[in-house]
Amino acid sequence: MKSEHAKELRDAETARVNAIRQVDVQQRDTQAATAASAITALAANVSTVAETLRAAAAQMAANLAEQAAQQNEAINRRLVALEQASYEGRGKQQVADPQLAAMTEEMRRVANAQTAAGGGKVVWGLVAAGVVMLMQAVGLLFLGLRLMAGN
Fold first, then answer.
1. Theoretical Cys-Cys bridge with 129: which of 24, 60, 99, 110, CB 3.0 to 4.6 Å?
2. What is the C-alpha separation between 145 and 150, in angstroms, rounded?
3. Full 3-state SS string of the chain
4. At what angle are helices 120-150 and 92-117 packed, to 10 degrees?
5. What digits encode the pLDDT tens for the residues 114-125?
6. What is the pLDDT of residue 97?
7. pTM of the shown model
8. How much is the pLDDT for 34?
């Protein structure tokens, strides 16, 4: 009888331990399912965030490329205008040529006046022409300095 009772106690203890193990197994399975669900949700979230960031980076790159193209276009237009002005001889010559033309015309008038007036007035005509040329040179000098200071 004692041995039967010992066997019953062993069987009862084995059943108790097995029940505890069964609860542990069920808890492990529940935790594994919960973890798998969380991992799946996190993976979906990471995928969505990655796609959003990729789209934002692509849009930013496109915007920057468009801005750079616009800036380059403006710079290229300016360079083309400068090159064209250089080919056509505009710029400094346009400022100086009208003054040189006026000075040349003044010299012609002085020469004509000298020819018409005779010998004594020739000297005064040359002096006047020299003064006019000096004034033109000083005017050109100041104009050149003003243009250089403006740039």
1. 110
2. 9
3. CHHHHHHHHHHHHHHHHHHHHHHHHHHHHHHHHHHHHHHHHHHHHHHHHHHHHHHHHHHHHHHHHHHHHHHHHHHHHHHHHHHHHHHHCCCHHHHHHHHHHHHHHHHHHHHHHHHHHCCHHHHHHHHHHHHHHHHHHHHHHHHHHHHHHHC
4. 170
5. 666 665 566 677
6. 64
7. 0.38
8. 92
